[in-house]
Write a structure and sequence with these properties.
CATH class of the domain at 4-91: Mainly Beta
Number of helices: 4
Radius of gyration: 32 Å
Largest sheet: 8 strands, antiparallel
Oligomer: single chain
Strand order of the largest sheet: 1-2-3-4-5-6-7-8
Number of strands: 11
Helix content: 10-25%
Structural class: alpha+beta
């Protein structure tokens, strides 16, 4: 009964102007009747490892999957979605709140930035230190004082989890090569570091 309390009942509007009706089964407490295209499936809630709400009709092999922002009806035997993007009034409210929060967020600010390690860099780090996790931030080596752990140009990618399409990349530039002693001294005004022009010998009589 705990899982049954999480099921959103009523009419859900789906893609392509289709709809699904989910209602409690009066003949079996805790079960539901899911109606789609003149067919009705008798489903019972099942535990999931992802937190999604799942109703399943074992005889038909059809499942109703409900997540916070949408639901879908799936033929598990064929591995195909029968209809997708179904939303109940509660799910449409969640979508509206998410869109409002997105509009309030300052432009250019990521909701939940996540650092990703460049694949080539991760492979190099794994080869150099077999016991080190490849998913560690690139800057971890530099923070510990090991300059060799930070590649010369490793892109740091920030992903906005609220908007996965918004991705920004900032590549760390390689450190400039140190200037030669002579050039450094000349720039600092140390004329002693610049050799004088040899004096010409006096003409002979």
């Amino acid at each position: 009964m705990r899982l049954a309390e999480l099921v959103q009942t009523g009419r859900a509007e789906c893609e392509f102007q289709q709809s699904i009706v989910v209602e409690p089964d009066s003949r079996q407490p805790g079960a539901f009747r899911v109606s789609f295209q003149r067919k009705t499936y008798r489903m019972v809630p099942e535990e999931t490892s992802t937190g999604a709400v799942r109703l399943y009709d074992a005889d038909a092999g059809v499942a109703w999957l409900q997540i916070p922002m949408k639901s879908m009806l799936m033929n598990t035997r064929a591995g195909q979605r029968m209809v997708d993007a179904c939303t109940s009034p509660t799910q449409r409210m969640v979508q509206a709140e998410a869109q409002a929060a997105e509009r309030m967020r300052p432009a250019g600010q990521l909701a939940t930035p996540v650092l990703l390690v460049d694949p080539a860099t991760a492979a190099a780090q794994a080869a150099a230190a077999p016991g080190q996790a490849a998913s560690e931030p690139i800057a971890a080596g530099a923070a510990g004082g090991d300059a060799s752990a930070t590649p010369a140009q490793a892109p740091a990618v920030a992903v906005d989890t609220a908007n996965p399409a918004a991705v920004s990349t900032a590549a760390t530039q390689p450190a400039a090569a140190p200037a030669s002693p002579a050039a450094s001294s000349a720039l600092s005004g140390d004329v002693a570091a610049v050799p004088d022009k040899p004096s010409e010998a006096p003409p002979r009589n």
